[in-house]
Write a structure and sequence with these properties.
218 residues; mainly alpha
Length: 218
């Protein structure tokens, strides 16, 4: 599995398709957090929101790197469709973790904040919550599910709007609202952790659905 993740990581790295979502993330973080002096909870909410579309983009780009014959060779070499799908999710998650580290650091460089351990933990939770939801959307809108990427792109945009605007329904909307209204990171640390677990569950469900559709098509 580690070798498969390393292979996918290097394929995406060499393809340079990570550059567009990476630059989008960096640009959004700089614009949203530059000269910010407010509570870090609200700042990291903005960073997490920026990671959401970027994680969708990264996941779809990663899955779209290989055509069907090439992917079939990878499946045969690895032993199963499930291993390839899990490696894809793991690779996308690794990229998102790297972006999370950047998202934790840049607001401290461009703004003025009093930093605590609770702030860093909250920032990591918030970004990973959005990353898991983004990877889930990326799987659901990938080539594994949709042969025509025009339809997949439209669905991805609809799902992004739904998770951002779905009040009292979407874990992303609930989390971002809680963080924007929080004056102390410690106050929302536990509730954000619960939403992170919910996001992980949704990612697992998206992976199961994608796997079922892939096997049915195959």
């Amino acid at each position: 599995m580690i070798a498969l993740v390393r292979y996918m990581f290097m394929v995406l790295l060499l393809s340079q398709r990570y550059l567009a979502p990476l630059l989008l993330f960096l640009g959004l973080v700089v614009v949203l957090t530059s000269s910010d002096t407010g509570p870090l909870a609200g700042t990291y909410a903005s960073v997490a929101g920026a990671l959401l579309p970027c994680s969708v983009w990264l996941t779809m780009a990663l899955i779209g790197l290989e055509d069907q014959p090439h992917r079939s060779i990878v499946v045969v070499s690895s032993g199963s469709h499930c291993r390839v799908l899990l490696a894809t999710i793991a690779t996308a998650t690794v990229w998102c973790v790297l972006l999370t580290a950047v998202g934790l650091t840049l607001p401290l460089m461009f703004g003025t904040h009093a930093l605590g351990l609770a702030d860093l933990a909250l920032g990591a939770e918030a970004q990973l919550t959005c990353a898991f939801i983004g990877v889930a959307i990326g799987l659901a809108c990938s080539r594994l599910v949709f042969r025509r990427q025009g339809y997949a792109l439209v669905l991805a945009l609809v799902l992004l709007l739904a998770v951002l605007l779905g009040k009292s329904v979407s874990p992303v909307n609930i989390m971002l609202t809680n963080l924007q209204n929080a004056s102390d990171s410690a106050d929302v640390l536990v509730s954000t952790g619960v939403l992170l677990a919910v996001a992980a569950g949704l990612l697992a469900a998206a992976a199961a659905i994608t796997q079922a559709i892939t096997l049915r098509k195959g």
